[in-house]
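Progress note, project year one: complex with zinc ion.
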Amino acid sequence: MIGLLLLGACNLGLQPDIHDATVIKSPRIEPTADIYEVGFLRRGPINQGSWKLPPDVRVCANAPITKQRVEKALDFWRELGYSFNEIYYNDVSRHCTEELFSYSTIIIDLIDGTHKEPALATTTTWIESETKRILKAKIVLKSRYGNVERILEHELGHAFGWKDCNRTGHIMNHNWGLSGLDTSGLEKAK
Ligand SMILES: [Zn+2]
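Model obtained:
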């Protein structure tokens, strides 16, 4: 019920009800490999929420990434059982140019000036507290790193509600230098 209401609100450009949604800003993905302490529990990724319906993806015109690179990352998640609705490239719609609360949408854009070094990318995911439904996600990429392997795949993981994990070689490892293509634990539940 709530999902339908929220979808309806999307076109009106209403502000999010922050009392109902948990805003999860993922830790920045770091380019170097020294943040995990020895003896830190090694565990698989934890999921914090899921989309009610496959989300749209809007790649904003300023996003520092090629269409081919985005397609590759989307295919990576499709192979794990996830799906997307409409995909928009070179988007200059209000979703990209205004502070619109774009429900049911993953936005991919250029990182803005508020992000500090050495962030390569950051994802913010809005999750409804009670239902654990993901309402919206925004991925911002740093200009010179948008096309680098595994970065968008990792950030899309956050957009699907996955937290960082510290397993070496895993795509959800927060540390880019320690991450890899291991996807164990990420398959979408049927
Ligand atoms: Zn991360």
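Residues 26-27, 29, 154, 158, 164, 174 surround zinc ion (CB under 6 Å).
The CA atoms of residues 91 and 163 lie 28 Å apart.
No further modelling is planned for this target in the current period.
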